[in-house]
Amino acid sequence: MIHTFKYSRTIRIWLLIGLVMLIGQVVIGGITRLTGSGLSITKWDILTGVIPPLNAEQWLQAFNLYKETPQFHKINSLFSVSDFKFIYFWEYFHRLWVRALGIIFLIPFVFFVFRKKIDGYLIKRLGLVVLLTIITASAGWIMVKSGLVNKPWVNAYKLTLHFVLAVLVVVAMVRTIADVYNYGSSRKKQNVSIVKIGITVTFFQMVIAGLMAGMRAGLYYPSWPDMNGEFLPSVLKNSENYSLGNLINYDSYLFAPALVQFSHRILAYILLGIIIYMFMILKNKINNRARKWLDYTVILIVIQVVLGILTVLEVDGKIPLLLAVSHQLIGLLFLISIMFLHFSLRKVKA
What we know:
Elements: H1 9-34, H2 56-66, H3 70-74, H4 81-114, H5 120-146, H6 156-180, H7 193-215, H8 244-248, H9 255-282, H10 288-313, H11 321-344
Helix pairs in contact: 1-4, 1-6, 1-11, 5-6, 6-7, 6-11, 7-9, 7-11, 9-10, 10-11
């Protein structure tokens, strides 16, 4: 469906700013995770949480709350207040960005509805984005709570749920923007099933990426193209290891991290092949707008694979922050690109 309501340039720019803000939120979330900052703030105060500690006494109070967490006792017991301020900053910035995103959406949204600048269709589309954002934020707090009891890290599966929901928010916004900008094609007999296959594989790869992050699986096999000298890690060759218990207790046995990293690598190779094949069969058969997004998609997948390899090779007891964040950002941009490609090829009346 291509919507015919005429939206102003202001509306269009507002939606693009919203998409950029959503991308920023996911990236900041990645930095928060990689710096181990996600558990530094042990409370969720929607209003009062906007104001960070402002003096030494307030910082000490916040630090004392953090000292009660398993992460402090098991990992960061030597932290000073100065060390705590660093991780506090990223979690605070992560939450502040969410609040800013809400304000940037809510105030103009109410204004545009009041002035009748947007129609019922766009209200429903943006309502879905807001709903998914609220669900994502709720899942984020559930994720944080999982790391405040017993374990010093958030639960990998809850982190993955939080990440996938954030990705769905981005996808919903991309769909909204594609509709507002009237993305589509009047050409006949375009076989775009390969694009749908690419999107499906990308989604599964995003799920695996969330598990990679949650299990810190990149730490276990810092080599390429092999995995510590093997194509298939030996722990995956033993059928007895394939049990629910090993998947649940991923932090006490190597099986789950090995399975996740191996799957992540294989899916990356498969996705690269799909995108190259997609480029070869579509490059001369699609409209100019779609061709632009096709080119972006190819460029981004190549960069993404290279960044993934470099990230693994640079692991030295910890995940390299800049490479890992860049890997996540390019992966998200790749998803956005292939989604815009898909919407550029949908059939519309001439």
